[in-house]
Amino acid sequence: MTVMGGHGDSDDPVAEARARGANLAQFFLGDPQSWKAPKLAYPGGAEALKAGAEAAGVDLYVHAPYVMNVASTNNRIRIPSRKTLQQTVTMAAAVGAKGVVVHGGHLTKDEDPAVGFTNWRKAVDGLELEVPLLIENTAGGGNAMARRLERIDQLWTALEGSANADRVGFCLDTCHAHAGGEELVGLVERVLAITGRIDLVHANDSRDAFDSGADRHANFGEGFCDPEGIVEVVRLSRAPVVVETPGGAEGQAADLAWLQEHLG
Fold this sequence. Notes:
This protein is of the alpha/beta class. It has a single domain (4-240), classed as Divalent-metal-dependent TIM barrel enzymes (TIM Barrel). The protein contains nine helices and ten strands. The protein has helices at 13-19, 45-56, 75-94, 113-126, 149-159, 174-179, 187-195, 227-237, 248-263; strands spanning 4-7, 24-28, 59-63, 99-103, 133-136, 168-173, 200-202, 205-206, 217-218, 241-243. The protein is globular and about 45 Å long. It starts with a strand and ends with a helix.
């Protein structure tokens, strides 16, 4: 059975999974738009959540804060990003999470992307990765580190020599790929040729047109993504699936049911 779930509230990820009829829960550790240290609201703390998830058969995934950008040339962004990422990984390990998802980041339009790839390598070198770090492709930004496949290829090349390279995986987001200008049909094969692995799929429809650069998710059948492409990505990736679609537990449960129906 495919491991599937949604992104929900962090107060009780196990309950969030149950509300979706799911066996996976993805959540933030605190405010995704804040530099504050990660925190866990679950009663009883990390050990209790780990035990509760294991007892319920729910796999946990943590999404790192949006504010982080380890590729940045700005010390006031890059240095706290590394600190926050390590704190997030450490707490994710404490709750027994299967991985930490982090966006690829970006540079300003006039900066050399090679500097961003080097900064990524330095960040990975310096991390204690008790759980895998899953770099996610992003939808927008002309100088993004992980929007287009050629940039992802450059990023993976930069990370190859790191002692932590085997602890770095890939999270493939269908909305981001579509909005970022990558066709979904045939995408899994193209990604695997670069990364050699897809550890997690974010299965989302897109509110915006192909190559729009807009990161705005939609429920399945209500956006512009090719439905056959979404299903192909999920089927061929052979990875756990997270829906990050609108409508809370009800909307995401419907999207999970849609996926199950179309996967056959």
